[in-house]
Specification:
Elements (H helix, E strand, L loop, with lengths): L1 H5 L6 E7 L2 E4 L2 H27 L18 E3 L6 E6 L12 E12 L6 E9 L1 E3 L10 H6 L6 E3 L4 E5 L5 E11 L12 H10 L3 E6 L15 E2 L3
Parallel strand pairs: 10-12
Antiparallel strand pairs: 1-2, 3-9, 4-11, 5-6, 5-10, 7-8, 9-10
Length: about 230
């Protein structure tokens, strides 16, 4: 009986010489493990085979293709009001353009005829203004004051369109840029580089973005705020 079980041992180790005319050493333990492996494989194959043949518990994978492109979205104060502010650690507004500058930019990318990839074609600056109650038509003037929205900046009264994605032929998105005043470009306006660096190192600056519940559907809306120009 033991010899029969040993014959099933396919875990046997190869040797460089023959033992009893055989090239592998087969053991009783190896035979038991091999039989157990065969049993597991047969049981698994039987279960999968029944599932395929009888279809008692079929597994279905459905995929619904909604759209080939991201739709063009209209953003204005009526459907997606937004505002931003810079504050210090005491939540007091910081608007010192000789030290820090901020702008809301709209980037437009189009497919290059040479490379076939998206390439930046236009950068538009969206004018900002101090927010007023009419910039948030869905809240009352009392709510506007209680939220201290008067210290925030809002986009000018204009319609902004965003559309597309990196995998499409064109794309438009907005970006809030906060950066140091460039003394080398505007030496007559900006503070000196040392004064700017000292001010930034001594000041905790918070970038606050506020939006109100919108009436448009965005599958993935996010914003990134960071300082540039080696801040």
């Amino acid at each position: 009986m033991n010899k029969i079980i040993k014959c099933f041992d396919f875990y046997g180790k190869g040797v460089k010489f023959l033992i009893e005319g055989k090239t592998k050493i087969k053991t009783l333990m190896g035979g038991y493990i091999s039989l157990l492996t065969i049993f597991v494989l047969v049981a698994f194959s039987w279960q999968v085979g029944n599932d395929i043949y009888f279809k008692e518990k079929p597994r279905n994978l459905n995929e619904q293709k909604i759209s080939d492109n991201f739709p063009k979205l209209l953003i204005n104060k009526s459907n997606f009001p937004m505002a931003f502010s810079l504050t210090d650690k005491y939540k007091k507004p910081i608007y010192k353009e000789k030290f820090i500058q901020y702008e809301l930019l709209k980037y437009e990318y189009k497919t290059s005829e040479i490379t076939g990839y998206l390439k930046l074609s236009t950068v538009l600056k969206i004018e900002l203004k101090t927010c007023i109650p009419s910039d948030f038509p869905m809240i009352s003037e009392v709510g506007f004051k209680e939220a201290s929205l008067g210290i925030f900046y809002c986009p000018n009264d204009e319609d902004i369109f965003v559309e597309g994605f990196w995998t499409e032929g064109s794309m438009t998105y907005m970006s809030l840029s906060v950066k140091k005043c460039d003394y080398e470009i505007h030496p007559n306006f900006c503070e000196s580089k040392d004064n700017i660096d000292r001010y930034i190192s001594e000041t905790l600056i918070n970038i606050n973005l506020i939006t109100v519940e919108s009436t448009i559907s965005l599958t993935n809306f996010s914003y990134k705020s960071n300082f540039t120009n080696d801040l």
